[in-house]
Design a protein that fits this description.
This protein is of the alpha+beta class. It folds into three domains: about 80 residues, Double Stranded RNA Binding Domain, CATH 3.30.160.390; about 100 residues, DNA polymerase, domain 1 (Orthogonal Bundle), CATH 1.10.150; about 180 residues, Intergrase catalytic core (hpI Integrase, Chain A, Orthogonal Bundle), CATH 1.10.443.10. It is about 45% helix and about 10% strand. It contains 16 helices and seven strands. Strands 1-2-3-4 form a four-stranded antiparallel β-sheet. The chain has a three-stranded antiparallel β-sheet with strand order 5-6-7. A hairpin with a 2-residue loop joins β1 and β2. The longest helix is centred in the middle third of the chain and has 20 residues. The protein starts with 6 loop residues before the first helix and ends in an 11-residue tail after the last helix.
Length: about 400
């Protein structure tokens, strides 16, 4: 039966409540979580029955669930009680959505919310349709083994998130017994310890080769090439580069200010722009089409998070990664310059010292770091490997 909603509306609706007809509603919370709710009256009392997350229950299925509940009401049955008597066990996917919505308030930023969802959607997809009380150790191992030795850090996060979802299911009475995703005393007997695996350091290009690489990169007429060059020159993380908005750039002071919500450490980070970095941004400003410095194909969306990696692949660079250029910068600064270690770590947006030291370190040494980043940009341009760059106050 056709209603007032459609798939597009379900996917894009802003926070609020939207009726589909016959008392079926889509409820969108302030966190963006979407769920189905059926309202009805039973024996003179108003009732509200959840029909699952819109992320795992399509519109057509929600309508069918609502129709089934209405048929029970017509027979004098309370569909909520019937579901309880029948078990009412949610799928792993529905439970994961509920857990993520509950935890959302504690996430540091939108990126972490998206990562929580994407890791389970990508790697734990075989579990999504399973009733949460049927997930076994074999099911969990089937998810983890393909990535355990090749993507150790990701695998660890996936395991932890599966464990949290199953713990929540047990707390709500949907499961009983031990958690099959538990590490200590369980999976640690079935999988090698992560400390025994390669921790997956990002492959880095030797800093002596960065200058010649950038020279070749500048011959590429592509937005991704400019993004990658700016990423190298600023020693920034790829996510920080791809998410740059024009509002973060101060051309007069030649400063890029990354807000805390977009930083791994949750702190605002100011980046002094070298002459070449400034020139790249001014070049892009002339053709800007929206809020993002590096716009993607979708309207008002940034460039794909794979764009810079694909640029490396197209240039036949297989022994280095985008993130690895931060290591190239760190190696250059430590081996070929006399800039202080604390300054270098601050340029990389690393947290320095214990909490007491951090409390006293209230300034970010911006102008001193400007000399460092200008020197790095000059090195990348001239590829003068023999010269050691000196630092003076």
């Amino acid at each position: 039966m056709a209603g007032h909603l459609n798939a597009r509306k379900v996917e894009t609706a802003k926070p609020g409540k939207y009726g589909d007809g016959a008392n079926l509603y889509l409820v969108v919370s302030k966190t963006g979580a979407r769920k189905w709710v059926l309202r009805f009256t039973f024996r003179g009392k108003a009732k509200e029955m959840g029909l699952g997350s819109a992320a795992s229950v399509p519109l057509a299925d929600a309508r069918e669930k609502a129709a089934s509940a209405r048929r029970k009401i017509a027979r004098g049955l309370n569909p909520i009680d019937e579901r309880k008597h029948g078990g009412g066990i949610p799928t792993f996917g529905a439970m994961a959505d509920d857990v993520r919505e509950t935890l959302a308030a504690g996430f540091r930023n939108e990126k972490h919310k998206a990562q929580w969802k994407s890791t389970l959607a990508t790697y734990a997809l075989p579990l999504h349709a399973k009733p949460v009380d049927t997930v076994t150790t074999d099911d969990v191992l089937a998810v983890l083994k393909p990535i355990w030795t090749t993507k150790a850090e990701t695998a660890s996060r996936v395991r932890g998130r599966i464990e949290k979802v199953l713990d929540a299911a047990k707390a709500k009475g949907f499961r009983h017994g031990e958690n099959p995703a538990r590490w200590r005393g369980h999976l640690d007997h079935l999988l090698p310890r992560l400390s025994q695996l390669s921790r997956g350091h990002h492959a880095a290009m030797p800093y002596e080769e960065v200058g010649s690489f950038i020279a070749k990169l500048r011959m590429r007429e592509a937005t991704a090439a400019l993004a990658l060059e700016l990423c190298i020159l600023t020693a920034a993380r790829s996510g920080e580069i791809l998410g740059i908005s024009w509002a973060e750039i101060d051309f007069d002071k030649r400063i890029w200010t990354v807000p805390a919500i977009r930083m791994k450490a949750g702190r605002e980070h100011r980046v002094p722009l070298s002459p070449r970095a400034d020139a790249i941004l001014r070049q892009l400003q002339k053709v800007k089409t929206g809020d993002f410095v590096f716009p993607g194909q979708a309207h008002n969306k940034p460039l794909s998070n794979m764009a810079m990696e694909m640029m490396l692949r197209r240039m036949n660079i297989v022994s280095a990664t985008v993130h690895g250029f931060r290591s190239s910068f760190r190696d250059w600064a430590g081996n070929a310059s006399n800039f202080p270690r604390e300054l270098i770590e601050t340029a990389l947006a690393h947290v320095i010292g214990d909490k007491a030291e951090q409390a006293y370190r209230r300034r970010d040494a911006l102008e001193k770091r400007r000399k460092l980043m200008d020197a790095w940009a000059a090195y990348c341009t001239t590829s003068n490997t023999a010269k050691v760059i000196s630092f003076r106050q």
